[in-house]
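Hello again, I could really use a second opinion on something today. I owe you a coffee for this, so here goes:
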Amino acid sequence: MPRRPSVLFVTDLAYEARGRRYCDEDIFLSSRLRDDFDIALCHPLDAAALMDAFDAVVVRNSGPVLHYQKEYDAFRERAAARGTRVYNPLSGRADMAGKQYLLDLTAAGYPVIPTIDRYEDLGALPEADQYVVKPKAGADSIGLDFVPRERLDGLTYGGILVQPRVDFRHEVSFYYVDDAFQYALHAPDPARRWVLEPYRPADADLAFARRFIDWNTLDHGIQRVDACRTRDGGLLLVELEDLNPYLSLDHVDDTTRAAFVTSMTASLHRFLDAPRAK
């Protein structure tokens, strides 16, 4: 009987996220993946010490890495040096690499909330009643603030991003495995981000999300495209999450949840069969 692939499933089961239960999602996912893989769960702080004994490392709901940035950087360096298979692969260009992508996408003319990080670029932002200021190294709304236009001149630039506060109808998230769309969810009430309902995207919505999946060029892995629906009906990118996107699997039906597990399982098998990155 051939040996089953072994997977180190990285998760922080004790992390408390507003409006979400990370632990429930990862207990469910790891229990289903066990049908095809030998799985062990570990805390992100233990991943570097344990990963050599496994065929692949799957990073799931591990919490904001800014809480353990030094250890996360060491994990990345060790994985790269040893050729460890990490899923999602560490070549992601979006949140995995910080918030620079919001600046790059703005400069390239993508449909993203306009973003600047220099005082000299304030004139490039549209007029708004308020502006969102957040740290470049931020995550999970940590350090986020809202300021009026007159306070923008007094900010300390260099480690922050500034965006107009968009008056939007609702937020919508598109979930992908590799480059294949899985499902979408939306938050009808802008004040309640994680009160989600299933959403049936139009072709134009999927074309919007696909632009960012294509831009990121990840051959394997899970991505979440977060967008807001503006008052004129268009979509703007809020975030492209490619590090450890929460999947909100408790908000989809059983058929969709099972299909996602099937897609992720097949993706992991393809990932393990692919040539190692050099």
